[in-house]
Amino acid sequence: MVTDINSNTYINRELSWLQFNERVLQEAEDEGVPLIERLRFLGIFSNNLDEFFKVRYATVKRIDEAGKTGKSELGGISASELLEIITQIVIKQQSDSLHILAAIHKRLEDENIHIVNETQIDEAQHRFIKNYFIQHVSPALVIIILSELVKLPTLKDSAAYLAIKMELGKQQKQYALIEIPKSMDRFVVLPKKGLDNYIILLDDLLRYCMDDIFNIFEYESVSAHMIKITRDGELDFESDLSKSFIEKISDSVKHRQTGEPVRFVYDKTIDQETLLFLMNMMGIDSKDSVIPGGRYHNRRDYMDFPSLGRTGLLYDKIKPLPVKGLSLERSIFKNIAKKDYLLHTPYHTFSYIVKFLREAALDPKVKNIKITIYRLAQISHVASSLINAAKNGKKVTVAIELQARFDEQANIDYAEQMETDGVNLLFGVKGLKVHSKMCVIEREENNKIKRYGFLSTGNFNESTAKLYTDFTLFTSDQRILKDVVKVFDFFETNYKIFRYKHIIVSPHYTKTKLFKLIDTEIENVKKGKPAFIKLKLNSISSYMMVDKLYEASRAGVKIQMIVRGICCLVPGIKGMSENIEVISIIDKFLEHTRLLVFCNNNDPKVFISSADWMSRNIENRVEVTCPIYDADIKKELLDVFEISWNDNVKARMLCGSHENKYKHNNLPKVRAQFAIYNYYVDKLQE
């Protein structure tokens, strides 16, 4: 039973998220997307689903197990009903994904790329596979022999296992599990034959080598079916006062692997006897989402499908552009002392951030560097620049968020390294995640301290900067940076709440300030003055913010929203939201910029922000929304919004239903991400 979400004032957050993931799946289905990229979108779809079950499904399950309905938090649906709805939607999406994968496999054949299984191996491939198994696979295997007399070891979260059933004769059976090694490539490239490429999945390679693994059992027959378990991904903290905060986070990350199961996916061709045996041993119950799947799970591995040198089957790589007027070969301090600059990755190169920090690390006049860190790259030049600065005698303060979900271990490792090298670490504020993205540098000039810095919508992460769209404002505007320093003061003396004249800071002021901006538009439209609101967000799930936008819509304020992911607001409903339009763009890059525009009687107020309009961002995190004062940058951001709004290739219209309809019209084709890149190319040539 699927609830009609049009009947509610809000769209349930979890169901809206599943709509978003369906848009990702649509990219895998789109024949206009390069073939190997389609496989990678399937991988993203699967990876998203894993995280959804670890976090959101697990949360709803906790509500249900606590005996609560959760209707007020879940948009009018009870927790028990929602668990059932989610499972049904996911079963349908998983089925669709299998059909899409089969269609992609057929297209790969047309491109002379053959994915073979264990029944399709010739003599030359046989020799290669046997040698590969002995040299690379066998030493890494973890094999668990199952018995009702021996307790099953804890299966790893989101790891894929082959469930083995051996018929031993005289109706005797032996069960076992083979863990698919995460350390190994899932796709094994076999020797090429002429123009033909051959790939075998590691799963099928293991099936081919069953006798090498289990020959001691002298079985009569053997079968292998894949299973996967997903566990509750919430961190539970110990109250041990003798442990440091880093130690508690580290221990909690390790304990995540033993969290309660929330999803069990199995190959639907597995026999019932084996399935029940496994579910009993693993303690899977009716509260868990039990999903029949295909032959292969962990399709997130398709994100790393080998390119085979076939560049025509991938998106063309773009060359990141320079920011007009900002040189990587000269002092960035001298440039931004004169005016503000906007970095828009991945269209512009992330190198400006690293260059800025490296310059600060070397400059004798720089005295202090303060920065927030949420997610670092695996090899982080940002972190090495900060360590370099500390070694050069600068006072470096890093507010690092150790609870950045699923990146905790990487942040812990860098935190320990930075602490060893003299960086002053701040671990935020108890009960609040530090999600703001900002840096301020204090430099001595003419016996006075002058501040330089940047504020961003995204993490200071070299890897994601190639894939995520984000804005970063470089500025020496002392008004803004004085406020930024107050946020760092709050980290150190968080019993004291500061007042900010320019930036908007969660959790103390965001709701009040945003309501005031929206109220101005409501007042203006009532007076017959121009009024509009333009928002670009990753998600909006705060009911109080949704209600405020409904109020503005009822007053007659025109509202345009670009929302990539969760959207609990129902647009286009007469008497409630008829003046609100919402689109979502899923394409080559992950849309991650957050942009707020308020008409202000045709004198637009423009902001970039680290915060989405979710309850957690407004009430439970330290977030910063930064005003744009530079007229050129303000125009640039308005131009970028308009280009995105006019997308009629990759934009979907969000209508409050379960459908994800493309925004098609008879106007000239606009594919926003490609058009924005061309916009910046033209800017350089002006």
Automatic annotation (TrEMBL):
Role description: Catalyzes the reversible transfer of the terminal phosphate of ATP to form a long-chain polyphosphate (polyP).
Organism in which the protein naturally occurs: Gelidibacter salicanalis
Polyphosphate kinase C-terminal domain span: 331-496, 504-673
Cellular component terms per the entry's GO annotation: polyphosphate kinase complex
Keywords of the record: ATP-binding, Kinase, Magnesium, Metal-binding, Nucleotide-binding, Phosphoprotein, Transferase
Entry-linked InterPro entries: PP_kinase, PP_kinase_C_1, PP_kinase_middle, PP_kinase_middle_dom_sf, PPK_C_dom2, PPK_N_dom, PPK_N_dom_sf
Protein's name according to its UniProt entry: Polyphosphate kinase
NCBIfam families: poly_P_kin, PRK05443.1-1
